[in-house]
Amino acid sequence: METVDELIELAEAQDPPEGAIGFLERAVRLADSQKDRPAAFRARMALVRAASFSGFPDKAMIHFAWLIGTFDRHPAEFGHQAYYVMWMYKWLLSSSLDNPAFPLNRLRKLQADFERRAQVFGSGAHFAAYHRLSLANHIGDRVGAQRAFLAWRSLPRDSLSDCEACEQNKVMVYYAERGNPAAAVKLGREIIEQGMSCHNVPTVTHANLLLPLLRLDQPEDAHAAHTEGLRLARLDRNFIETIAEHVTYLVAVKELGRALTVWAEHLDLALGLRSPSDLFGFLGASATLWRAQEGQGSVKVLLPRTFALFRKDGAYRPEELAEHFTREAGAMAARFDARNGTDRFARRLEERLRVG
Q1: 132 in Cβ contact with 337 (< 8 Å)
Q2: Does 17 have pLDDT greater than 80?
Q3: Which of 190, 316, 341, 348 minimizes the number of CB atoms within 10 Å of its CB?
Q4: Which residues does 354 contact at the CB level (< 8 Å), separation at least 6?
Q5: DSSP letters along 160-216, please?
């Protein structure tokens, strides 16, 4: 008979982490049936991690709620896990922000709870300031974002801060969004030249460089960033939003054939996304691509059967697909804007569509 720890070991051997989820759910059920609280805690910690890093934020949230409740009720038994619980809390804050079904007032309560726990734990104020910046950017509060950015950058890093590569990339993105492509490019080049890296960097950095480099009239550098960045992100579900940036770049430089190839290669992965924020990015890039194809007649492309407008002959009218993806992206933008009480996502979509 399999044990909880054997199932956890089997899960750890899976690559990608999405394959671990089934083993860990079995481990959780087994531990619960045996009323083995420490084993249930171990299994759920592994499950929250696997779910967070393979695009299942809802699963992560459910099991994190059990973890945090058990952690609070049994401090003597699980107090030594405080660091790991706090780190997972960071992931849940981010995934909640990216889900329009998660109410904003509830997210603010989570944020306040995290900040309270960070004060007790003695670490986490630095990340809490960054999350305030993320929220302000997300809803389009430029004044609040500037205030949060300055607070974040003024605080010392601590044990719950993101890695230095991630943080520099986030500063880079902030400058790009504030209309300072020169500062963004400077920071992005430092990341790459200094070999800064983590799970996401420099894969996302190359994509974040694309439009700023074009705005600075540096097309050769943008092409180099595209080539390397696409190589790193290709066919990875965790980088579908990054792929969308590459598709948008190819549309901007009028390489529509190449854009279509990259887009079609990733459509099936995108259709299976569980992150509404990442899906919004891909839908916007899709609408931009097909709008750029309008007026050229039927386009032949092999698309997955899971696609709503799938045709066996592979012949598609750009106007029909442009309308479809513009509508889908607009609907997703409306969900976020309704949750946030702003028009930030509608404006983001308009900006993306203008690239083509």
Answers
A1: no
A2: no
A3: 341
A4: none
A5: TSPPHHHHHHHHHHHHHHTT-HHHHHHHHHHHHHTT--SSSTTHHHHHHHHHHHHHT
Under 8 Å between Cβ of 100 and 336: yes
Task: Give Cβ neighbours of residue 226 (< 8 Å, ≥ 6 apart).
Answer: 206, 210, 246, 249, 250
In angstroms, the Cα distances linking 122 to 91, 116, 310 are: 19, 10, 54
CB atoms within 10 A of CB 2: 11
In degrees, to the nearest 5, what angle opens at C-alpha 289 toward C-alphas 169 and 240?
A: 40
Q: Is the full-model pTM beyond 0.85?
A: yes
Q: Which pLDDT value is given to residue 103?
A: 95
Instruction: Go through 190-214 and write b for each residue having 16 or more CB atoms within 10 A of its CB, e for each that does not.
Output: ebbeeebeeebbbbbbbbbbbbbbb
- The torsion angles phi and psi of 82, rounded to 5 degrees, stand at -55, -45
CATH of 1-96, one of 1.10.1760, 1.25.40, 1.20.1270, 2.60.120: 1.25.40
Q: Reduced to 3 states, what is the DSSP secondary structure of residue 252?
A: helix
Report domain extents, the chain.
Answer: 1-96, 236-356
- CA dist 128 and 111 (Å) reads 7
Tokens, residue 212: 């700023």
What's the CA gap between 207 and 319, in Å, rounded? Answer: 27
Mean pLDDT of 225-253: 96
